[in-house]
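Before relying on records like the one below, remember that each one covers exactly one chain. Contacts with other chains, cofactors or solvent are not represented anywhere in the record.
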Amino acid sequence: MTLLRILLPLVFLVSFAGLSAAQDTTVNGVGVQPGKQTLADILARQRGEDVPFGAQVPRPAEHEAPPVSSQLGPLGGASDADLWRDIRADSGTSLSASNRGPAATVMMQESGIWWLDFRRGPLLTYGNAALAATVVLLAIFYLIRGRIKIEHGRSGITIARFKFIERFGHWLIASSFILLALTGSISLAGRKVLIPVFGLEAYSAYATIGKWIHNNVAWAFILGLVMVFVMWIAHNLPDRTDINWILKGGGIFGKGHPPAKKFNTGQKLIFWAVIILGGSISVSGLSLLFPFEITMFGPTFAKLNDMGVPQLLGFGPIEASLTPQEEMQYAQLWHAIISFVLMAVILAHIYIGTLGMEGAFEAMGSGDVDLQWAREHHSIWAEEMVAEKNKPASGAHPAE
């Protein structure tokens, strides 16, 4: 009897150990079920290694799978394992959803990892660096050139440069863009920069208000773009004076300014930068406001492939079959990148219109500018305005 009491526990331990070894395998000392994903698989895939997942993983035979009732068994029956394999691989063979939208069955989108890494890494880093570099270059330019003054002093005579409706369109773009830049930056830098500083609750309040402002002020920005395009397009078309203006550097260095019409070449470049970049920002913003309805990148990539552009640059065809989520991710990145470029342009525009040039702000302030300023910077336009002002009224006859 004593011998039996000793042997029975030993037999039980040996049997239990053999059963465990027969059913489980180990990876790095951790037991896993056949066909299951492991932590090592996930980490290897994040490093870029080609590790099969989802529907590609061999499925264990029925006799190898643990019972449904056990702790390690699939909850809800064997069909759950098939469902989650399809979701993981986006195969869609057994998926259905109550939502009939275009992205209803895309529940796990692994390609979004690169977008998230780029958004919180290079996009923020290089975007902020570009803005900082712009400010530094403008400061250096100011130290070297100083303020561009009216060389022969003010004449004391003013002429009308911009009407009220023109100034309204300009300030509508300027004020709305500043609000959009601030609220967009809060959204972009929130997770990485602002949450660690202010905390989740404080950032949540700012982000909620900022999102509402960003989405609604966008319409004012688009309206301003349309207004200035219609009002100023005729004055911003290239002409022969632009060549001379560029050759003389716009009079920025040295004395004297090349002849110019109502808008000189530098202002024309600003105009087209605002129209083209602002228009691109608007379209990508609309695609984000109305997701899955406005697609920009899939059709664009397909056209580039048809034209052979990637091949000319030494690359293969661009993947043009994008999921709805990928369309939104590309749109968000494009929206942010172009916004950073336009912010740098606007910083230069603000500098030259305020601190950089005497008399320039008056054009968009009161709408009237000093005649001497106009003759130095826009001589052709100034002479046209003086001639028009001195022209006798219709029907009047010179005195005899």
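Confidence is low (pLDDT under 50) at residues 1-35.
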